[in-house]
Design brief:
single chain; about 220 residues; alpha/beta; Rossmann fold; 7-stranded mixed sheet; 4-stranded mixed sheet; 8 helices; about 30% helix
Length: about 220
């Protein structure tokens, strides 16, 4: 029942920028103790299974939106006691994020270096492009250092509307490691970089045949 409610609100209401239903979603979630996932395609449940039902893990979710709708880390935090960092560039979503979550939260655009980019805050998501509001970007590793994230993080969720390669290609994988990652439609170049940095392709999420995420595991931690 909760899953049906969640999908209805997400598909029909949240995508149009309505935020009030998010509050309803939180209320409904608290009424059902057996909820298993809030992710778009069960990524949070998959991560929890890969990590053998781990409690008190750590996460970084980049492209966190309002922290509830299709969130890959909401259930991990609220049901299994995980802690971590949510990063969201869209100012409108960030206002909701800080109401909905208790983890560390950063309102920032993320790129491969400190620089100013144009970011479109409108619509259902938000993305870097040729038009929009000038916004200062920071490297992911810098944000992680400033928020005291550990050298080994259990889970990275990366969904930044086509900006994934720029965010992660030059990331210092020798400084920070992730046991599991879900990355939305990574480029071939980024895919090869991950394979050469100790990661293995665990599976590809393709709901109804449409490519959504690649799931990677680090060979040092997941056998």
């Amino acid at each position: 029942m909760l899953s049906n409610i969640r999908h209805f609100l997400s598909d029909k209401l949240i995508t149009h920028g309505w935020q009030f239903p998010v509050r309803l979603l939180v209320v409904f979630q608290k009424m059902f103790s057996s909820y298993s996932h809030m992710s778009q395609e069960g990524q949070d449940k998959l991560i929890h299974d890969i990590l053998e039902n781990k409690r008190n893990g750590t996460f970084v979710e980049l492209g966190a939106s309002n922290g509830v709708t299709s969130s890959n880390s909401y259930v991990l935090e609220n049901k299994y006691g995980w802690t971590g960092l949510c990063i969201e560039a869209n100012k409108r979503f960030f206002k909701e994020l800080i109401k909905n979550r208790n983890c560390k939260m950063v309102n920032s655009l993320v790129s491969d270096s400190e620089k100013e980019l144009l970011f479109n805050n409108d619509g259902a998501t938000g993305m870097v492009g040729d038009n929009g509001e000038p916004m200062q970007a920071q490297p992911l590793a810098q944000i992680m250092r400033e928020n005291d994230m550990p050298a080994v993080v259990d889970y990275l969720s990366l969904d930044v509307e086509g900006h994934e390669e720029t965010v992660l290609y030059n990331f210092p994988f020798d400084e920070f490691k992730f046991k599991v990652m879900t990355i939305e439609r990574p480029s071939d170049r980024l895919h090869e970089k991950l394979l050469s940095s100790g990661y293995e392709l665990h599976l590809v999420i393709k709901p109804k045949g449409n490519w959504l995420d690649n799931v990677y595991t680090h060979s040092e931690f997941i056998k």
